[in-house]
Amino acid sequence: MSLRPVDDGRTPEDFVKVMGGKTASKYTDPCAKASKLSMKCLEDNAYDRTKCTEAFNNYRECKKAWITQRRQDRLNGREDAWN
Fold first, then answer.
1. pLDDT value, residue 44
2. Is 49 left (phi over 0), alpha (psi -120 to 50) or beta?
3. pTM, 2 dp
4. Is residue 12 within 8 Å of residue 69, measured between CB atoms?
5. pLDDT tens, 27-80?
6. Main-chain phi, psi angles of 49, to 5 degrees
7. CA distance 37 to 65
């Protein structure tokens, strides 16, 4: 039996792969999985936010990592990175 790591949504998908061929929009988000997990947590816990702090923190960490990755890619001149 192999153990697979749990994907808690903390790490964003590569934004260039996620957004390839799409126009810049507030609706394209490499952290969509973390967002869905936090909404699912709220639904499962009758919208008691105190029970979902870990899911919210995972989403925040994902967004921070995504923004940092975008900045770094632009600074490094990555061709397919958005401005």
1. 97
2. alpha
3. 0.67
4. yes
5. 678 899 999 999 999 999 999 999 999 999 999 999 999 899 888 988 888 876
6. -60, -25
7. 17
Q: 40-54, pLDDT tens digit by residue?
A: 999 999 999 999 999
Comparing CA positions, the residue from 83, 68, 81 lying closest to residue 20 is 81
For 3, the token pair is 């153990």
| Structure tokens belonging to residue 59 | 């989403």
Residue type, 54: E
Residue with tokens 């039996």, as numbered in its chain: 1
The residue behind tokens 């810049």 is: 24
Q: How far lies 54's CA from each of 5, 27, 44, 68, 79, in Å?
A: 17, 23, 14, 21, 35
